[in-house]
Amino acid sequence: MVTIALFEDDKVWQERLISSIGKALQEPFQVEVFSSGDEFLTQRKNAEKEYQIIFMDIELGDASGIQIAKKMNDCMPDAQIIYVTQYMEYVSSVYESQHIYFIHKKEIDQYLSRAMEIALEKIRKIDSRYLSFSWNKETYKILQKEIVYMERILRTTKIHTRTAVFSTSEKLSELLKRLDKGFVLCHRSYLVNLNAVVRIEKDRVSLKPDQSVPVSRSRYHDLKQQFNLWIAG
Q1: What is the pTM of this model?
Q2: Which of 15, 59, 154, 192 has the fewest CB atoms within 10 Å, counting from its CB?
Q3: What are residue 185's DSSP bridge partners?
C-alpha cells in the first residue's frame, strides 16, 4: 500500500489529482488530503503518520507549500515530494526544499506517470535499507545497518540493534530472505550482521560494541569465508 499526502485547497483539483494518481499508479494506494498547512500540523500532533509520496501545491491560502515541504524534509526525510502548481514563477524557489519533480497543473497528464515512476523507484531503494516485521499486532520498521545480531529463543526471535531489542515470531530463515547479503547465520539460533563483526573464533564471534554470540562447528568455515569476501568488497 502506497501512502500519499495531497496538499491542495481547491476541491476540483483534489478530485482531479486523485483520479490522475489512480490512473498512473498500478498498485493499491491511500490518499489523505490536506487543504492547509495548519490541518496537516494538527494531524501531525495527534498521529505521527508517515507518507511515502507527497503532492504539494505551492500556494495553500494560509501557508507556503515550499515552507511545509522544508518541514517535511526534516520530519519525513524519506518522503518523495512532487510539486503540482499552476504558478511557473516558483520553478526556482522549489529548490529551497528536497523534491523529485515539478509539474505545471495543465501538464499533469503528460508528466504525472513519469514522476510516479521516479518516486516508486526511490521508495523501493529506501525500503531495501529497512527491515519490517510485526509483534503483538504492531508493525516495526528498522534500518538494517542498525541490527547487530538476531537470536531465536523458543518461538521468538530477538532482534538486537545498537540501541534497542525488538521481538518477532518470524523465524531467522524467514527474516534472512528480506535482509541484504551482509547478514549470515552463524548458528541455528543466531544470525549476525557482518558489519558488526570484530573477530571470528572457532566457537564464538565478537561483535561491536562489546558483544559476542556462539558459532556452530558446521557454520564456522562458511561464516569465515563470507566475512573475508565481505571485507574484501
Answers
A1: 0.70
A2: 154
A3: 191
> Cis omega (within 30 of 0) on the bond before 214?
no
Per-residue model confidence as pLDDT tens digits over 177-211: 999 999 999 999 999 999 999 999 999 999 988 89
Bridge partners for 85 per DSSP: 104
Q: Which residue do the cell numbers 529497512 mark?
A: 130
Side-chain-side CA neighbours of 28 within 13 Å: the count stands at: 1
**What is the chain's Cα-based Rg?**
23
What are the tens digits of pLDDT across the range 69-103?
888 888 889 999 999 988 777 677 778 889 999 99
Nearest to 81 by CA among 123, 144, 48: 123
For 10, residues 6+ apart whose C-beta sits below 8 A from its C-beta are 57
